[in-house]
UniProtKB/TrEMBL annotation:
Cofactor needs: FMN
Organism: Mycolicibacterium rutilum (Mycobacterium rutilum)
A biological process term (GO) from this entry: response to toxic substance
Keywords annotated in UniProt: Detoxification, Dioxygenase, Flavoprotein, FMN, Monooxygenase, Oxidoreductase
Protein name: Propionate 3-nitronate monooxygenase
Catalytic activity: 3 propionate 3-nitronate + 3 O2 + H2O = 3 3-oxopropanoate + 2 nitrate + nitrite + H2O2 + 3 H(+)
Taxon lineage: Bacteria, Bacillati, Actinomycetota, Actinomycetes, Mycobacteriales
């Protein structure tokens, strides 16, 4: 099966996955692509003009690259449920003299504006997560010369993406760090080993795939490539890379022996995501409602203040299960070492 990555002169079958919220930087994308890999900018949580600036910075390096976009898939929340949770979280925010939003803040992460930007200033690859964009969006991007990649977490999602006409699938396992790309955040799919999920998706959707989730060693990468993936996508192992924009608090937590496991939580954003288990999760998970992006906007000021103050117990420490293997090295070196067993 021919992979679109071949047409982009990608020779290293390990992709730098997009990590929204700061970790993925233009420097990381340039370093990955310059090493023969492919890096994807993370458009999530950024204003369109900020995305445009990052695209310009990477384009100036004359390397292939992509942009990841959050496709709208809101999880509504009622005012009363929101306020109960907001009152509880506000007590933590009071320590930093931070005022949290009193009512739910909902938006679509400027989806239409970002699509308009990517149509007026096309990039080689656009990937989507959280939801499936309309067929019209897929076709318009392809007409502009862009390869469209869709994140999926199940065979059924893969079939839906194939029916929408996408060019490639990013198959994400439950062990992945950060947000799950599931289309149904209220019903997480049953955990399936990544290599097995890759084989199932390829058989059902007949599209090239990149595999993501828990890939932290050369053997991990070799396993998914042998299962049929055209490439592996890694994020967590790049969090401590020299080009990473992850906060000092996040970086330090990845090597801190007091953090011993990752868990899936909705306490920080109202949508399931995997991160290092900390006090905030222990205290708030049981009462945290689903509600995205309202809960994300609620806790964001607290998380930023805690990260700046060096208090990891109140920060969303997104990480996959292989977080202990994240190293402080150049991005290019990390990616190159991951293909040693291929």
């Amino acid at each position: 099966m021919n992979s679109p990555l071949t047409n982009l002169n990608v020779t290293l079958p390990v992709i730098a996955a997009p990590m929204a919220g700061g970790p993925t930087t233009p420097a990381m994308v340039i370093a990955a692509s310059g090493a023969g890999s492919l890096g994807l900018l993370a458009a999530g949580y950024k204003a369109p003009d900020a995305v445009q600036s990052e695209i310009a910075a990477v384009r100036a390096a004359s390397v292939p690259f992509g942009v990841n976009v959050f496709a709208p898939n809101p999880v509504p929340i009622d005012e009363q449920t929101y306020r109960r949770y907001a009152d509880a979280v506000q007590r933590e925010a009071d320590r930093f003299d931070v005022r949290l939003p009193a009512g739910p803040v909902d938006d679509d992460d400027a989806f239409r504006a970002k699509i308009e930007l990517l149509l007026s200033d096309p990039v080689p690859v656009v990937s989507f997560t959280f939801g499936l964009p309309g067929d019209d969006v897929v076709r318009a991007l392809q007409k502009a010369g862009t390869t469209v990649v869709q994140t999926v977490t199940t065979v059924d999602e893969a079939k839906a993406a194939a029916a929408a006409g996408v060019d490639m699938l990013a198959v994400q396992a439950s062990v992945a760090g950060g947000h799950s790309g599931t289309f149904t955040p209220d019903r997480l799919p049953a955990p399936v080993p990544l290599a097995e999920l890759v084989a199932q998706v390829i058989a059902a959707a007949d599209l090239p795939v990149m595999a993501a989730g828990g890939l932290a060693s050369a053997d991990d990468v070799a396993g998914v490539l042998h299962a049929g993936a055209a490439a592996a996508a890694v994020g967590t192992v790049l969090l401590r890379a020299q080009e990473s924009g992850a906060s000092a608090t996040h970086r330090a937590a990845l090597t801190d022996p007091s953090f011993t496991e990752t868990v899936i939580t909705r306490a920080f954003t109202g949508r399931p995501a995997r991160g290092l288990r900390n006090r905030f999760i222990d205290e708030f998970e049981a009462r945290a409602p689903l509600g995205y992006p309202a809960i994300h906007h609620l806790t964001s000021p607290l998380r930023k203040a805690a990260a700046a103050a060096g208090e990891p117990e109140l920060v969303h420490l997104w990480a996959g299960t292989g977080y202990r293997q994240a190293q402080e090295k150049p991005t290019a070196a990390i990616l190159s070492e991951l293909v040693a067993a291929v």
